[in-house]
Specification:
Elements lengths: L1 H25 L3 H18 L11 H18 L8 H30 L3 H8 L7 H7 L5 H26 L6 H31 L6 H17 L5 H12 L15 H33 L2 H4 L5 H21 L4 H4 L7 H9 L11 H20 L6 H14 L3
């Protein structure tokens, strides 16, 4: 049995690798193929009466580790300099404002029409407001550099802001001004921890001479994240901050307390670390979406009773997205379509206590919103023109030539 299980895992990972390769040509997000593969494996298992243990237990674990690695991978690619200031600002606004509008708007509707408390309404609707970086970032692989950066910033910030907002909504028994100040204090504390821990880990990466170094750094990231979560701190800030520190290590050359760090070696180590993170992210992301596809229930996917809720949520998501992309003077094609819900939505939904759950925003709505937004993204990417690598090189050369001395 163990041999069959190992062979199965290997085959799944190799199939996922094939999906990643073919995505460049088919423009079908690998996530859709992974979900479909997991669902088909479940159907085949049921057909042949194969007994498979309950995989719902490991889904939150895979999701948490996947979230950490995906945000870390995305933040390692982000550049923080004057040339990216406007892009960061636009990404932050487009990530924040629609999220808040959707959360407050639907919460007000639930409060007045269904007599839910505003706190309970927020808890139930926030998971649907968050763009999934685990789906958006890998799906933007064929886009131009600027659009890829926008998607990475926007989805990562959406994850972070959404989780912070959810933590605030679930804090205490009611949403109060005292609770807001307490949460702001937690945010500042986590920011300080992130600065110190990120710099320490960056120095360790440069100083450790042992042949095993990247694994322990990743494990320390997961450890710090989980410890922060135990104390209800916004832990995702640390992951983003650490990735930004390593991704912009050249910007720290002038810091006095880092004058003994060999930046040439550190830059080389950061590149190797990126490669390890990318490989690890691929494995965990594959396993998460295969398992998630496996535990999908067919009746939840085709549940017509929940379609009104799921379609309403999806329509509001894209209407607001179109408005704010226009206001931000961003190209609608294909950015309008890339607003998938996924890993974070599942994780936050699973963390809602039974007493706080609103019965009409159930598993069916979660699955349908994820599938609808992912399908919309797939359709949008199918009509996106493929970027010519030679044109990208020419554009970069032209930019370098025209740059002021």
């Amino acid at each position: 049995m163990a041999e069959i299980f190992i062979i199965g895992i290997c085959l799944i990972l190799l199939i996922s690798y094939l999906f990643d390769i073919t995505t460049k040509f088919t423009k079908i997000p690998s996530v859709i193929l992974l979900l479909a593969t997991g669902w088909m494996l479940n159907q085949i298992g049921g057909l042949y009466n194969i007994i498979i243990p309950n995989l719902n237990v490991i889904l939150p674990i895979l999701g948490t580790v996947g979230l950490i690695l995906i945000v870390l991978e995305g933040s390692l690619e982000l550049e923080l300099n004057r040339s990216t200031q406007n892009l960061v600002k636009k990404s932050a606004v487009i990530a924040l404002v629609p999220l808040v509008i959707i959360a407050l708007g639907f919460s007000a509707f639930l409060y007045y029409e269904w007599n839910l408390s505003f706190k309970q309404s927020l808890i139930n609707i926030i998971p649907f407001c968050i763009i999934s970086s685990s789906i958006a970032i890998p799906s933007a692989i064929n886009l131009s550099r600027e659009k890829r950066q926008f998607i990475t910033y926007e989805s990562s910030l959406s994850d972070i802001i959404g989780v912070l907002f959810f933590n605030f909504a679930t804090f205490g028994t009611a949403i109060t001004l005292t609770g807001a100040f307490h949460f702001a204090g937690q945010f500042m504390l986590m920011l300080v921890i992130s600065v110190v821990a990120s710099l320490v880990l960056a120095v360790l990466l440069a100083k450790i001479d042992h042949h095993i170094k990247y694994g322990p750094i990743i494990i320390l990231n997961i450890l710090i994240y989980q410890v922060a979560k135990i104390y209800h701190l916004p832990a995702l800030i640390f992951i983003l901050f650490f990735g930004l520190v390593l991704g912009n290590v050249d910007e720290m050359r002038n810091l006095k307390f880092l004058r003994n760090v060999r930046f040439t070696k550190l830059t080389r180590e950061v590149q190797h670390f990126k490669d390890v993170v990318i490989e690890a992210t691929f494995i965990v992301r594959t396993l998460f979406f295969i398992v998630f596809g496996f535990v999908l229930k067919t009746e939840d996917i085709i549940n017509t009773d929940s379609l009104v809720w799921s379609v309403s949520i999806v329509v509001v998501i894209y209407v607001l997205r179109a408005i704010f992309l226009k206001l931000g003077k961003m190209d609608l094609q294909p950015l309008f379509y890339i607003a998938p819900r996924g890993l974070i939505t599942v994780l936050l939904f699973l963390s809602i206590t039974p007493k706080d759950r609103f019965p009409y925003l159930n598993e069916s709505v979660v699955i349908q919103v994820i599938l609808l937004t992912t399908f919309v993204m797939m359709i949008g990417l199918l009509f996106e023109k493929k970027i010519n690598p030679e044109m990208l090189k020419f554009s970069k050369f032209k930019k370098d030539v025209e740059a002021p001395e």
